């Protein structure tokens, strides 16, 4: 009962409150897809992923598990955001410094430790592959169109490669938004201008929702799963980005959580599995897993920042 109250009432209500903020005059230019807004959305998304895995492990075939089968597609937003931020960051560099880039990535993704888990982590493996394609795109090409074409080719090549080698569907069904994020970094202003028309905005949103409903239904019910969930994931991410054009997501709680999404992604299943083995009340498992995951995530994130700062100071 408590689990359902948190997962099916408290969290959805909190998300709706966070979304219920139309842009005020002058806010859009300063807020849309800026760090505060995207970090807040990341916080919302990672909690859906948390509830998705919790319900799969602790409460399969329940209403909560059915409701959070959308958790897997939420990863598409993180790939979209990675494509966007990576391309944007590269475009601001006069010259691509691979050593500096990969040292920064190693610190942020904890690669000295996590690299050993790359064969078991769909998100990390995909992210590293797309980083390589993006780096190569900026080294080999000068024009944005050429770079985007190369990144898009790499994105689809990796997608097909995973299917050919027989990788599980959750390895490939949520990765096709990386190149869209890169494209958004290039054409963001044009996209914003296009959707200033409420008619165009409404038509596109309706079209995406029409695509999302059947693909989501089939995906959630495991029918034509690979195709359905891939389409649903891709379309769902675009719907989220469109909603962010009209709604200024605001929540101190989700923003705080959004700062630690990578760590939460790494640790949450470990705690859920651990507590589920020794505790037989799902509500207690949920609360302990959430608190432990967030606590360790904050400690690791802030600890690594402190270590990195100390290392950099010693180099001077």
Automatic annotation (TrEMBL):
<feature type="transmembrane region" description="Helical">
    <location>
        <begin position="284"/>
        <end position="307"/>
    </location>
</feature>
<feature type="transmembrane region" description="Helical">
    <location>
        <begin position="257"/>
        <end position="278"/>
    </location>
</feature>
<feature type="transmembrane region" description="Helical">
    <location>
        <begin position="109"/>
        <end position="141"/>
    </location>
</feature>
<feature type="transmembrane region" description="Helical">
    <location>
        <begin position="70"/>
        <end position="89"/>
    </location>
</feature>
<keyword id="KW-0012">Acyltransferase</keyword>
<feature type="transmembrane region" description="Helical">
    <location>
        <begin position="224"/>
        <end position="245"/>
    </location>
</feature>
<dbReference type="GO" id="GO:0016747">
    <property type="term" value="F:acyltransferase activity, transferring groups other than amino-acyl groups"/>
</dbReference>
<feature type="domain" description="Acyltransferase 3">
    <location>
        <begin position="41"/>
        <end position="141"/>
    </location>
</feature>
<keyword id="KW-0808">Transferase</keyword>
<feature type="transmembrane region" description="Helical">
    <location>
        <begin position="44"/>
        <end position="63"/>
    </location>
</feature>
<feature type="transmembrane region" description="Helical">
    <location>
        <begin position="148"/>
        <end position="165"/>
    </location>
</feature>
<dbReference type="Pfam" id="PF01757">
    <property type="entry name" value="Acyl_transf_3"/>
</dbReference>
<keyword id="KW-0812">Transmembrane</keyword>
<feature type="transmembrane region" description="Helical">
    <location>
        <begin position="199"/>
        <end position="218"/>
    </location>
</feature>
<protein>
    <submittedName>
        <fullName>Acyltransferase family protein</fullName>
    </submittedName>
</protein>
<keyword id="KW-1133">Transmembrane helix</keyword>
<dbReference type="InterPro" id="IPR002656">
    <property type="entry name" value="Acyl_transf_3_dom"/>
</dbReference>
<keyword id="KW-0472">Membrane</keyword>
């Amino acid at each position: 009962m408590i689990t359902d109250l948190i997962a099916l009432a408290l969290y959805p209500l909190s998300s709706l409150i966070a979304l219920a903020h139309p842009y005020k005059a002058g806010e859009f230019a300063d807020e849309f897809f800026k760090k505060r807004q995207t970090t807040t959305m990341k916080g919302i998304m990672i909690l859906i992923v948390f509830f998705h895995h919790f319900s799969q492990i602790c409460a399969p075939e329940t209403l909560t598990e059915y409701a959070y089968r959308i958790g897997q597609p939420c990863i598409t937003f993180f790939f979209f955001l990675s494509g966007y931020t990576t391309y944007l960051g590269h475009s601001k560099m006069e010259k691509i410094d691979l050593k500096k880039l990969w040292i920064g990535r190693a610190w942020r993704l904890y690669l000295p430790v996590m690299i050993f888990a790359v064969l078991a982590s769909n998100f990390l493996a995909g992210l590293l592959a797309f980083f390589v394609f993006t780096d190569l795109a900026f080294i080999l090409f000068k024009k944005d169109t050429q770079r985007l074409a190369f990144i898009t080719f790499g994105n689809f090549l990796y997608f097909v490669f995973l299917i050919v080698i027989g990788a599980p569907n959750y390895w490939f069904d949520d990765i096709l938004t990386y190149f869209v994020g890169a494209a958004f970094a290039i054409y963001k202003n044009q996209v914003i201008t296009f959707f200033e028309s409420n008619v165009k905005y409404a038509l596109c949103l309706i079209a995406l929702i029409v695509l999302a409903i059947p693909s989501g239904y089939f995906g959630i019910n495991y029918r034509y799963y690979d195709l359905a969930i891939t389409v649903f994931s891709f379309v769902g991410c675009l719907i989220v980005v469109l909603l962010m054009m009209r709604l200024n997501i605001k929540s101190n709680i989700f923003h705080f959580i959004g700062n630690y999404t990578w760590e939460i992604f790494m640790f949450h299943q470990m705690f859920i599995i651990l507590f589920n083995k020794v505790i037989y009340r799902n509500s207690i498992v949920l609360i302990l897993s959430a608190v432990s995951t967030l606590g360790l995530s904050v400690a690791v994130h802030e600890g690594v920042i402190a270590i990195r700062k100390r290392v950099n100071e010693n180099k001077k």
